[in-house]
Amino acid sequence: MQKRGQIFVISGPSGTGKTTIIRAIRESVSEIGYSISHTTREPRDGEIQGKHYYFVTGRDFERMVGEGRFVEWAYVYGHLYGTSYSSLENAMQSGEDLLVDLDIRGAEAIKGHFPESLSVFILPPSMEDLEARLRARATSDREDVDLRLKKAAEEVKSCREYDFIVVNDDLAHTVHEIEAIILAERAHTRRRYPLIRDLYHLS
Question: Considering the domain boundaries, does residue 147 fall inside one?
Fold first, then answer.
C-alpha cells in the first residue's frame, strides 16, 4: 500500500550476524528489497555479479565517486564499498521498501540525504560473544580479528544515534523484532493516509 518505499538501514559490528538477519527478513517480509553495493573486492565463492554486489575495478569506482554517483562510500578492510543514488531511488520510486547494510558513516550519509529513513543497530549479546564469533569464522590471522574487535568497541558507542537497537542473542527473536519495526512503519499514518485519503475520497 505504499506509493514510495522506505529505507531501513541495518548497522552493527562485523560478526553480529547482519547478513543472516537480512536474508531471513527478506524471506519473511513481503515487498522488501536489498540495496546492492558496488565494491572493488574480488567475488567470494558463490557470490554473483549484480545479486550480491556490483564488482567493479578501482578505476571504475573512482570514476563513479568523481561523478557523484554514490550516496556514501568507504574504504573497509582494504577495499572500496559504495551505495549508489540510483539503486535507492529506483527502488523507492517503485514503492519497494529497501534494506541497506551500512557502517556508521554510511548510515549517517543516508540519513543526511534521506531523513525519513529508519536505522537499526544490531548489537552482539556481549563483546566476549562477538570475539568468539569472529575467531570461529576467522579466515585470516589474529591481527585481523583484533582489528575488527577494536573497531567494534568504537562502533558500539554509536548505537544511541540510531532509531532502534536490537540485541542479537537469538536469531529468530532478532528477526521478529526487525519485522515488527518494518510492519509498524508501513502502517504509520504518514505513509498510509495518502492512500486511505484516495481510497475513501477524503479531503
Answer: yes
Q: Answer whether residue 47 is part of any domain.
A: no
- Scored b (16 or more CB within 10 A) or e, 155-184 reads bbeebeebebebbbeeeeebbebbeebbee
With 0.90 as the threshold, say if the pTM is over it: no
Q: Are 11 and 121 in contact (CB under 8 A)?
A: yes
Q: Is residue 89 part of a domain?
A: no
81 within domain boundaries: no
Which pLDDT score is estimated for 141?
Answer: 66
Structural domain of residue 26, as residue ranges? 7-35+96-199
Instruction: Tell me the average pLDDT of the chain.
Output: 92
Q: Are 102 and 110 in contact (CB under 8 A)?
A: yes
Instruction: Summarize pLDDT for 99-147 with one digit per residue, the tens.
Output: 999 999 999 999 999 999 999 999 999 999 999 988 887 765 676 888 8
Task: Give the residue among 71, 107, 101 at the shortest CA–CA distance from 87.
Answer: 71
**CATH number assigned to the domain comprising residue 123:** 3.40.50.300
